[in-house]
Amino acid sequence: MVVKIAVLVSGRGSNLQTIINSIEKGYIENAGINVVISNKGDAYALERGKNHGISTVFLDPSRCDNAGYDRKILEVLKQYDIDLLLLAGYFQLLGPEIIEAYRNRILNIHPSLLPSFKGLRAQKQALEYGVKVVGCTVHFVDEGLDSGPIILQSCVPVIQGDTEKTLTARILEQEHIIYPEAVRLFVEGKLKIKGRTVISF
Ligand code: GRF
After folding, report:
1. Which of 29, 43, 71, 196 has the most CB atoms lying inside 10 A of its own CB?
2. pLDDT, tens digit (0-9, with 9 covering 90-100), for 159-169
3. Ordered DSSP codes for 35-65
């Protein structure tokens, strides 16, 4: 069976690109990205999708309320018969209807070692807090903010003199490693959730 993937994006889409590359190179087998959906019309991620012959959809959030917007996303997911939904730099919370419809089939990448530094500008939060180790997390998405069961994490040091930019770049390198790995584990059916704990085998 081929796992049909949709990717929700808002921006530059470097994580989307690594997933595309991982599928094209055969690191992730038996899966394909069927559609890229953006809530920003000018997201560069849309170009990345098009460059690889993937359908892209811009859904304008200003035209409806939150629940209505979620229904629009769900319509697209149904239209493409999507099995797995990936959030890759998607800067908007998903509503309960989508979470319920895709329970344990939505993954997100977050640039911190969760549960620390949830929400926006996690790298800046970490710098301001003064932590010495940072990283990134791939997790299942539930109703909370960056709160679902953790699949993979990777850490990097904070180096004296780091800025938000240098730290973000160091973390991003790791994001590009663990997100494709988590997707591969999911696609191969190698993830099991027990309470808050994800077991991979
Ligand atoms: C990444 O840092 C990701 O962890 C966060 O948003 C950023 C998106 O980057 N959720 P990109 O659009 O994938 O390049």
Report:
1. 43
2. 999 999 999 99
3. EEEESSTT-HHHHHHHHTT-EEEE--GGGS-
Residue nearest to atom 2 of ligand 1 (CA): 111
Atom of ligand 1 nearest to the CA of 17: 13
**Can 139 be counted among the known catalytic residues?**
no
Query: Which residue, of 73, 102, 131, is where some domain finishes?
Result: 102
For residue 115, cis peptide bond before it (omega within 30 degrees of 0)? yes
Range of the domain at 196: 108-201
Separation of alpha carbons 8 and 128, rounded Å: 29
Same domain, 98 and 113: no
Reported as a single tens digit per residue, the pLDDT across 6-45 is 999 999 999 999 999 999 999 999 999 999 999 999 999 9
Instruction: Examine the fold and report which residue of 70, 86, 102 is the final residue of a domain before the chain moves on.
Output: 102
CATH number of the domain residue 118 falls in: 3.40.50.170
**Ligand 1 pocket, CB under 6 A:** 11-15, 88-89, 109-111, 136, 172, 175
